[in-house]
Amino acid sequence: MAVTSADACRSPEAQHSAADSGSTCTGSSENGNNGFWDPASWIPPGWASRHSSRSAERGSGVWAGESDESRDARPKRILLMWSATGGGHRASAEAVKAGIEELYGDKYHVDSVDMWADHMEWPTNQLGKAYNFAVKNSWVWKCVFNAPEPLHEFNNELQAKFNDKKLGAAFQELRPELVVSLHPVMQHVPLRVLGRLRKRGVLNRPPAFATVVTDLSEGCHHLWFHKGVDRCFVPIEEVKEKAVRRGLSEEQVTIHGLPVRPAFAKEQLPKAELRQWLGLETDAKIALLVGGGEGMGPLIPTLQAIKESGCACQLVVICGKNAKLQERVAKDDWGPHLRLCVQGFVTNMNEWMAACDCIITKAGPGTIAEALICGLPILLNAFIPCQEEGNIPYVQNYRVGTYKSSPKDVAATLKQWFSPEYEAELRAMAERAREIAKPQATFDICRSLVELLEDRTAASSAAGVSSSPPVQGSV
User: Fold this and answer.
1) Domains and CATH numbers, the chain
2) Cis peptide before 123 (omega within 30 of 0)
């Protein structure tokens, strides 16, 4: 599980202001496929649920070759699919897994898998490395993100054919009855491969399929949305509206919020007690400076600017897994006014957040969601082009924080926030943050996923299905 934020920071080169770039990343068109073939034409809306009706001819379980007695004797299997394109998708998957286990114990067997790295052919399995290169070279990432929609769809079909054998083998090995995508590239290709398994008779009926969108704004990529899924869980109304524009029905889409670590749903100790427990100053203004799970981002320049501003406060600096950064920050002299508490890879981010008065971070959606739950005013200092740009107006429009692109402006804003004249507004920002937070989002998503799985199982059992061969040519 990611431990410093739900979205690991990228290098400074990857984080540019939209104002500096003079462009707005909006992704591809909302409607249709620009005259190209429609990938959903052969996978109609609610494909997974509607094909259950054919189960009356094929057996009650999802996977062929398993008796009802054998199936009923084991926990139902749930597969959480993600890709290591940053730390946020893995963190969201681990949050959902932890939520299911906390709610239901060992009733369900949950696999959390990097499907692209572990179960795709080379070079497709290098997606994580390719992503890291792209975001460090923002022009490359903008070209990929904003590529014409027909190009994305052609690539989906190509990847499905190229990886059909290996990805299909992974599904047969894991044998999920519920498949959950937590990544935008985990809808179109897996649904195609599952469709082919169905045609070959490997599947008696499709597993239930759900998407959990882990991007916070309507600027999220269109690949998140596929009409063939059973359910799509989104964080806010604007993302639901985009899903509907992409062809999903109102009934398919549910607003729950972003999945974050279950610890954030629990009541925290009073701030004074937390500070004493964590070894922090009890009466000082304290800011949390997050460098992400990999300890990347403009952390050193920001610290230097805060030092030069003369802002008198304590700073908790989370360096993540970057041991060299942690050592450097701990050894450097930051002047008499700036007192640092330097941490590496932490597993109690909820406590560190709850103990502080504001947070300085890049615009990762998971970190923003966690900060809102803790009532932290948010000072954004970087973002990944396109996918995180929309998070900045989200924070600003709800008046829970602001964005500053330069370390000098970040330092000036922090000094203003911690001034006596700004104390009332800082408290107001904290209250507004708590008002829009969704601390129960993870558990709400988990309950809905389990409900989908159990409803599907009950419907199949009630159909009184047999184990006759599949209808060839069906999807």
Assistant:
1) 42-258+440-462 (3.40.50.2000), 263-436 (3.40.50.2000)
2) yes
